[in-house]
Amino acid sequence: MGRVQDKVVFITGAARGQGRAEAVRLAEEGADIIAIDVCEGIDSVDYPLASRADLDETVRLVEKLGRRIVALPADVRDPAALQAAVAEGVERLGRLDSVVAQAGIAPIGRAEAQAFMDVVAVNFNGVVNAVQAALPHLPDGGSVIATGSTAALMQSSDMTSRPDFGKLGYSFAKRSVAAFVNDLAVALAPRRIRVNAVHPTNCNTDMLNSEPMYREFRPDLENPTREDALPAFHVMTAFGLPYVEPRDIADMVLFLVSDESRYVTGMQMRVDAGAIVQRRPQQPQF
After folding, report:
1. In the Cβ-directed half-sphere of 66, how many Cα atoms lie within 13 Å?
2. What span, in angstroms and rounded, lies between the C-alpha atoms of 215 and 94?
3. Model confidence over 156-200: pLDDT tens digits?
4. Residue tagged active-site, from 47, 170, 214, 243
5. How far apart are alpha carbons 164 and 145 in whole angstroms?
6. Interatomic CA distance for residues 151 and 199, integer angstroms
């Protein structure tokens, strides 16, 4: 018997990166998965987003573990699409126990307002839409998990040097996720549905390993490579590490889906190798 044996978990952004790692880790511990991803690009994002082939690979990895998975292309910006995906998954798998609102983008380095709007629509509105789609199916004692970022727990980005409205929107969206989790935990407490956020530091995914991120960490170079940026990644941890792995985030999600966290709610769970504590921030104001 696994730690989440026969639970059904709905995961957004499941085609690769943290979402895929979460699907696989939960399947290893006995869960069945409803997986969605947009499987197409967004104009303001200057790195390739996941494809249908990526989502198919998540399916293969979950089924290889002997677990069931319903995988559908859907955009977290579209509430009706999410509601339809969850309804189909529940019909085929029989129940829903948890939602992991994981989908996210980082249109870093963009100076147009649309980049701000796009990242808020995906990284914050997408979380709300995923929870809204899942909530009618969640039983008392279920679990809601939202992916934030250490950016949620730091001061807002400084726009005085150069306009970067994608970065500004990313910070806003992740801070909004933290506040949403805090207050939704109160609203769902009568049903003992726990609501928590996971805040990663740099994570070794396609989002981090992209040209916009290389430029963010090495603004002194015109066309930095991963090798150029890698030494600078260390500023985001206190452990001297450049990043954590998707599996590290998946392990925290596993705990929050499992009954081991039955009395854990309203928490901002950092998987950041000391990124926040080394800055000794004041208590964030939601």
Report:
1. 6
2. 46
3. 655 445 789 999 999 999 999 999 999 999 999 999 999 999 999
4. 170
5. 28
6. 8
* Amino acid 163: pLDDT: 82
Residue 7 · residue 43 · CB < 8 Å? no
Please name the amino acid found at residue 209: N
Instruction: Report the alpha-carbon distance of residue 264 to residue 39 in Å, rounded.
Output: 33
Q: Which residues contact 73 (CB under 8 A, 6 or more apart)?
A: 36, 37, 38, 39, 40, 52, 55
pLDDT under 50 in the chain at which residues? 159-160, 286
pLDDT at 153: 86
Q: What is the pLDDT of residue 279?
A: 78
- pLDDT score for 157: 52
Strand partners, 3: none
**Residue 159: its pLDDT value, please?**
46
Residue 214 among the catalytic residues: no
What count of other Cβ atoms lies within 10 Å of the Cβ of residue 268?
18
What tokens were used for 213?
């991120």
Residue whose entry in the numeric block shows the structure tokens 């709007």: 117
Please check whether residue 24 is in contact with residue 250, taking contact to mean a CB–CB distance below 8 angstroms: yes
Full-model pTM:
0.95
Structure tokens at 212: 């916009």
Which pair of tokens denotes residue 54? 């990526």
